[in-house]
Amino acid sequence: SMTALIFIDLESNGLDQNAPGAELLELALVAIDPRTLQEIAHYTTPINARCHTAEWDLYVVEMHQNSGLLQELRGPRAVLKVEAGGLPHVHQAEAIALQFMAQYAPVDAEGRGTSPMCGANVGSFDRQWVRKFMPRLDKAFHYRCLDTNGAFLIEQHVFGLVSEKEVCGHRALSDARQSVDTLRKHAATLFEGYRVQGRVT
Predict the structure, then answer these.
(1) pLDDT of 191
(2) Which residues contact 6 (CB under 8 A, 6 or more apart)?
(3) Nearest residue to 6 (alpha-carbon basis) of 149, 80, 104, 124
């Protein structure tokens, strides 16, 4: 069976996973067929968090208010048990995420992850948060990261191009899908280059 590429996106209450009161607010995983780059499946959930917004940076509060995430985190699902449709706590969301990984990108015989962690800024942001708050999920991924923002950095630093990077909506699933779109766009260009060099028949 073929291993999918798994894209991840997280929403959090700040940039530093080690800050006091740091917490994950939302998780999304998107499984992609590496041959067609089409979505196979996804898992997304807001996470049952303390949400002491008085302690948050005002910018972060406004961002999550504007996206609608804060309203969901404070909505009726926040007080329900998971079995009754409530929001999962971070360890419960991790357990479901692990089932998702096992289905679409299972670990190899040595127990190593088979999909790199894919997404925008995954190495500098998402991976740090996952490692701290969902360590088993971190190990379910390969240690390598496929950062789709690398494409923008190449355009900028190598070719001097300033391309418009789409503004994120700061919801985990739509941002993860946006990273998939970035990969599709740049994979098409790379493929064209391979074809021109006669490497693809």
Answers:
(1) 72
(2) 29, 30, 31, 32, 101, 104, 105, 115, 117, 118, 141
(3) 104
